[in-house]
Design brief:
With about 280 residues, the chain is an alpha/beta fold. It has one domain: Alpha-Beta Barrel (TIM Barrel). It contains ten helices and eight strands. Helix 3 links the parallel strand 3 and strand 4. It is globular and about 55 Å long. It starts with 11 loop residues before the first strand and ends with a helix. The structure holds 6-hydroxymethylpterin-diphosphate (HH2). The site of 6-hydroxymethylpterin-diphosphate (HH2) has 21 residues, from strand 1 and strand 5.
């Protein structure tokens, strides 16, 4: 009997669990701990390879969340997910105290939209925790980042920033193989003038030699390209962005709509595999 074919390689899918009152696309839906856990279960059942759990929105104008409250929202959720699933959990926070508590509760990845710049001890805490870290590019800070973002050459500037942050993390003791990079779609970037060249320039970010995480799901550039569609009406554009990321060689995509994204990536990967067989 023929051996079953190994599934073709494709980026991993990171499902988003926002335990926040005010996230841009799903704020308030999963603030209740039971609702957040039910959502996490659903994303796992839909095929998520990882989950990203956050308790503080990063959208412009979002309310800052005190550290104790962030820990209170995150820790029981991480613990509950890990108690019933082997799916790795990432914690989306800029605060080292929250990352520390989440890792103690079972999180394997610290996803920091400030690339470990928020607190003076962030780099050292990341090294001490020994977890994986996602270093994301952002121009400015969440509250004001969309006011007037400016770049002479967005792809070069983002790539240089990420390379420098990876160096800083390694100098502080974070192991090279634990570092992920993320271009930070929508973070201090003009909707179309910056996000589109950055999407097109993803191969240059991938060429830095670290696994790349792409978070384009439901972001506002998709709304701008679809007549101002509301965030929950941006599925088609989100899938298109994930496929562009996969073609560019990103290692993972951070998405709200897991089932649909997994299906799209599986189809793309299977066709790519068939195409290789034909040309062999
Ligand atoms: N985007 C958001 C939040 N965290 N982390 C990484 N690494 N990359 C991203 O692109 C990214 C991120 C924003 O999306 P969301 O979590 O849905 O919204 P909010 O920040 O309003 O909670």
């Amino acid at each position: 009997m023929a051996r079953p074919l190994a599934p073709p390689p494709r980026p991993r899918v990171m499902g988003i669990v926002n335990a926040t009152p005010d996230s841009f696309s799903d704020g308030g839906r999963f603030l209740d701990p039971a609702a957040a856990l039910a959502h996490a279960r659903r994303l796992i059942a839909e095929g998520a390879d990882m989950l990203d759990v956050g308790a503080e929105s990063t959208r412009p104008g979002a309310e800052p969340v005190p550290v104790e409250l962030e820990i209170e929202r995150i820790v029981p959720l991480v613990r509950a997910i890990r108690a019933e699933s082997a799916v790795p959990v990432s914690v989306d926070t800029m605060k080292p105290q929250v990352a520390r508590a989440a890792v103690a509760a079972g999180a394997a990845i610290w996803n920091d939209v400030t690339a470990l710049r928020h607190a003076p001890n962030s780099l050292h805490v990341a090294a001490e925790l020994g977890c994986e870290v996602v270093l994301m590019h952002m121009q400015g800070e969440p509250r004001t980042m969309q006011a007037e973002p400016h770049y002479d050459d967005v792809v070069t500037e983002v790539a240089e920033f990420l390379a420098a942050r990876a160096e800083a993390a390694m100098a502080a003791g974070v192991a090279r193989e634990r570092i992920w990079l993320d271009p930070g779609i929508g973070f201090g970037k003009h909707m179309l003038r910056h996000n589109l060249p950055l999407m097109a320039g993803l191969p240059r970010i991938v060429a830095l030699g670290f696994p790349v995480l792409l978070g384009a799901s439901r972001k506002s550039f998709i709304g701008a390209l679809s007549g101002g569609a509301a965030p929950d009406q941006r599925l088609g554009g989100s899938i298109a962005a994930a496929l562009v990321g996969a073609s560019a060689g990103v290692a993972a995509v951070r998405v709200h709509d897991v089932a649909e994204t997994v299906q799209a990536l599986n189809v793309q990967a299977a066709i790519a595999q068939a195409s290789e067989t034909q040309s062999a």
